Amino acid sequence: MQLVVNAVTADVDDAATIADVVRDLAGIAEPRGVAVALNGAVVPKASWAETRPADGDTIDVLTAVQGG
Amino acid sequence: MAETGTSAARSDAWGVWGGNPPRNRGRQPGELETDQLTIAGEQLPSRLILGTGGATSHAALEAAIRASGTGLVTVALRRLDPGAPSLLDVVERCGVRVLPNTAGCYTATEAVRLAHLAREAFDTAWVKLEVIGDEETLLPDAVELVTAAERLVEDGFTVLPYTTDDPIIAQRLADAGCAAVMPLGAPIGSGLGIRNPHNIALIRQKVTVPVILDAGIGTASDAALAMELGCDGVLLASAVTRAEHPARMAEAMRLAVDAGRLAHAAGRIPRRLYATASSPTGGLPW
């Protein structure tokens, strides 16, 4: 299926979970200080492994950057 | 420390840059140490909150955080760049807490959504709430701000709103249950200081929650003035991170906040139109 991950279109396995998407993007399984929004709604960390996005979904993976 | 151009005389006088200057000279020991800022029942080690925006490198930021003596630093939340060094590593090394902001949000809905994401990312319910009106002035949209504050308080957040210097809006935010109010001195990053000191003093009189002067600070005297006006703390970023020598300015800000706090507590003399002699008027030999 196709997802939009951090504004980039990505082909991922149909069975992929949010945890898989985060790991593929960050390069590690459970990156610190990261939050995920699926189509704009927060997905709690505890639900990453069970949440399966659908084709066309938008996923944002966010973390801390410098800011006042 | 990344600081350069430190004179030998200065190093001799104060040890190493970033080390603690002789804080207790000329006053009762422990006065500032026991007079701590408490927000939502939590004591902070410093009345200075440092924003991390604008630093040229993580190394420069780390030096500035250490020199500032702060216990709380703001961060923004943005899309993960896997190649970027981790800001949280810097924060952790410095042993300070994170205050996530909602910078970049223009509506209450956006700000509430970003606050929830920040709570998930950093495991903290504290949020520096920003809802901006336009990108040229970056001034707060007071209407959206109050709406967002009400929602976030209801959702269990400890809300520290960046607001205008309007005492009525500050009161509305306090009434909404915000843990502090953070009026601006001048637009973000402008370095213009406190444009309306009277309003800041009014806000301090009007609300019972802590008042943190946020935005507009240019140099140490601005931070000292904020404290002299009765503010409970100062939040600044650009004044330090964009200074020629960030760690040096961070230390200046730390001293200024302490100096202003002491001056406020000391009770300044009244302003007078005419001079009042401080030397004896009698006893002259003519």
UniProtKB/TrEMBL annotation, chain B:
Organism: Dactylosporangium siamense
Gene3D superfamilies: Aldolase class I
Key words of the record: Cytoplasm, Schiff base, Thiamine biosynthesis, Transferase
Annotated TM spans: none
Keyword S-adenosyl-L-methionine found: no
Enzyme Commission number, as recorded: 2.8.1.10
Record-annotated active site: 128
Protein name: Thiazole synthase
This protein's pathway: Cofactor biosynthesis; thiamine diphosphate biosynthesis
Cellular component terms (Gene Ontology): cytoplasm
Main subcellular location of this protein, as a coarse class: cytoplasm
Function: Catalyzes the rearrangement of 1-deoxy-D-xylulose 5-phosphate (DXP) to produce the thiazole phosphate moiety of thiamine. Sulfur is provided by the thiocarboxylate moiety of the carrier protein ThiS. In vitro, sulfur can be provided by H(2)S.
Subunit: Homotetramer. Forms heterodimers with either ThiH or ThiS.
GO biological process: thiamine diphosphate biosynthetic process
Protein residues bound to 1-deoxy-D-xylulose 5-phosphate: 189, 215-216, 237-238
